[in-house]
Amino acid sequence: MSAAEPITAAEEEVVVAAAEKEEAHKLERKWAFWFDNQSKPKQGAAWGSSLRKLYTFDTVEQFWCLHDQVFKPSKITMNADFHLFKEGVEPKWEDPECANGGKWTVTCSRKGNMDNLWLETLMALIGEQFDEADDICGIVANARSRQDKLCLWTRNASNEAAQMSIGRKWKEILNVDTPLTYSFHDDSKRERGTKGNRYTV
Ligand code: MGP
Question: Any idea which UniProt keywords this protein has (predicted)?
Fold first, then answer.
């Protein structure tokens, strides 16, 4: 290509790709958005049969694009869940990374603060703001008639010091006055609706 000639479409593509590559801000790790629409469960369907991984990303730019266009928990239907999990970890108790874990829960409202608390948490996760980041699996937004909530899943429930550090940090990030409670997945497995709160911040 000489300076006098106009750039071809193919050349333009190469230039744009190079520019995008240069500008993209790589995250510390790869993340995935998931969605589970349980608003119309099929009779007899096992839990998780409607759980889907939607997108993975590893740059700041991809994150904002996905967040702006798709992922606002206030928009999801009753009984649906949104998730942001580390790539390679499935948002279920059965995943080996989650099997011995548990979750911190904060109550919120789709009509009120849910989108804001969700976004603050997402930025803290992808920005690696938690000291115990390796102990975190991901976050779930649950739209529920009795109470919307966000749950931060962690890996090693019995490590109280790690969970307390994560819980305190999350509360600071969320900037809420309500208590955050921690439950073990093992307790949730045993009986539906059992709160079994083990830690509180
Ligand atoms: P939920 O969706 O996490 O909470 O679990 P919800 O709807 O607020 O209800 P509560 O139990 O906290 O009051 C609802 C139910 O879905 C559980 O009781 C399980 O039966 C099932 N379930 C939820 N999760 C996250 C899993 C999972 O990871 N694996 C399996 N096998 N079942 C799950």
Answer: Cytoplasm, Disulfide bond, Initiation factor, Nucleus, Protein biosynthesis, RNA-binding, Translation regulation
Domain that holds residue 117: 25-39+49-200
In a domain, 14, yes or no: no
Q: Are 79 and 38 in contact (CB under 8 A)?
A: yes
**Which helix (H) or strand (E) segment is 60 a member of?**
helix 60-69
- pTM tops 0.85, yes or no: yes
Determine whether 94 is exposed, middle or buried from the number of CB atoms within 10 Å of its CB (0-12, 13-18, 19+): exposed
Residue 105's CATH number:
3.30.760.10
Which atom in ligand 1 lies closest to the alpha carbon of residue 92?
28
Q: List the structure tokens of 167.
A: 């819980």
Q: Which residue has the higher pLDDT, 154 or 197?
A: 154
